[in-house]
Amino acid sequence: MQIMNNIFQLAEACLTSPDLTVKLDLTQQARKLLENRTLDFSESSPPLPIHHVHFPQQLRWVEPKDLRQRKLSSLEGRVALLHAVAHIEFNAIVLHWDGVYRFRGLPQAYYRDWLTVAIEEMTHFCLLRHRLNELGAEYGDLPVHNGLWQIAEDTAGDILARMALVPRFMEARGLDVTPAMIDKLAQVGDKKSAGILKTILADEVGHVAKGSYWFQTLCRMKDQNPEVLYFQLIENHLGGKVRRPINQKLRSRAGFSNEELRRLMAMSSIL
Fold first, then answer.
1. What are all long-range contacts of 51-57, with beta carbons under 8 Å and residues at least 24 apart?
2. Do 144 and 62 form a contact (C-beta atoms < 8 A)?
3. Does 16 lie in the same domain as 128?
4. For residues 88 and 148, what is the distance between their CA atoms, to the nearest angstrom?
5. Nearest 5°: CA angle at 220, between 214 and 224?
6. Whole-structure pTM value
7. Each residue of 238-247: pLDDT tens digit?
8. What is the pLDDT of residue 270?
9. For residue 242, which phi and psi values (nearest 5 degrees)?
10. Which residue has better confidence, 122 or 68?
11. Which CATH number does the domain housing residue 143 bear?
């Protein structure tokens, strides 16, 4: 593998590769460069259109409605849950690399933050993949859907929409639903899987908090009201659909204001 030290070149190589191992290796390479303070942040050629981003060839894509629901009391049910979460975490690696690659001319702290998040998502994915292996499965064994990546495509030209709808909407959903997953896994005796999800949940609060910080910071730079724009973007891109439960405690720790939480509760429904 070619050795690169420029963040945008690494991002492009990672995003455009259809090879799972290459994507992980390039992310690990970026981790070492970041830790050694030898990562180059100078801008190179403009980003390629988002349709040049590739996912691993072994993935089988289906509509969300076509994914089978399985009981967690069975091994296949736990594998299905962990596979679904692993896919979310793998999507997150790609999403945050894309957030680094696609939006230029921002403070270096922005790129450091989202590269750090991509690296942490890689750690989460590897933990889940190893657990799947222990249970006799592999990432790619089950079909997956592209709902999360669709949001990335929809927000490719608007960094405010990307910050609002990826970390502050889609990833924030994990803060709402993961505690119940942890409890259910513990109830069926799978403490090891529950422990992995606890680790992921703790990190995800920080990821959503970074989304809150950059959304609010960039709104101020563009003379936008973040609380007003957040709900406009939910309406414009997602039809205003918000699901319960809403974990107000974790969302508050992740930078949601009391007014945002009030409005989310008011507009949410149990789906």
1. 51/153, 52/15, 52/16, 53/15, 53/16, 53/94, 53/98, 54/15, 54/16, 54/17, 54/18, 55/18, 55/94, 55/149, 56/18, 56/19, 56/20, 56/23, 56/140, 57/18, 57/19
2. yes
3. no
4. 8
5. 110
6. 0.95
7. 998 899 999 9
8. 56
9. -130, 130
10. 122
11. 1.20.1260.10
Name the least confident of 51-60, 106-115, 157-166: 51-60
Q: Residue 61 forms beta bridges with which residues? A: 144
User: What is the rounded distance in angstroms from the CA atom of residue 256 to the CA atom of residue 251?
Assistant: 6
> Does residue 56 lie in a domain region?
no
| Residue 94 counted as domain residue | yes
Model confidence pLDDT, tens digit, residues 197-246 = 999 999 999 999 999 999 999 999 999 999 999 999 999 999 988 999 99
pLDDT band at 80 (very low <50, low <70, confident <90, very high): very high
59 within some domain: no
Tell me the C-alpha to C-alpha distance, in Å, between residue 87 and each of 61, 76, 164, 232: 11, 16, 21, 28
What residues make up the domain containing 182? 72-269
Structure tokens that stand for 108 in this block: 């270096």
Nearest alpha carbon to residue 24 among 34, 14, 32? 14
167 touches 206 (CB < 8 A): no
- Both tokens assigned to 145: 């859907």
Is residue 24 domain-shared with residue 93, that is, in the same domain?
no
Using CA atoms, how far apart are residues 135 and 41, in angstroms rounded to an integer? 41
Alpha helices in the chain (DSSP H): 7-16, 20-35, 75-102, 108-134, 147-154, 159-165, 172-187, 191-221, 226-238, 248-253, 258-267
* Amino acid at residue number 190: D
Residues 186 and 263 in one domain: yes
Question: How is residue 158 written in tokens?
Answer: 């608007």
**49 occurs within a structural domain:** no
Statement to judge: residues 21 and 149 lie in one domain:
no
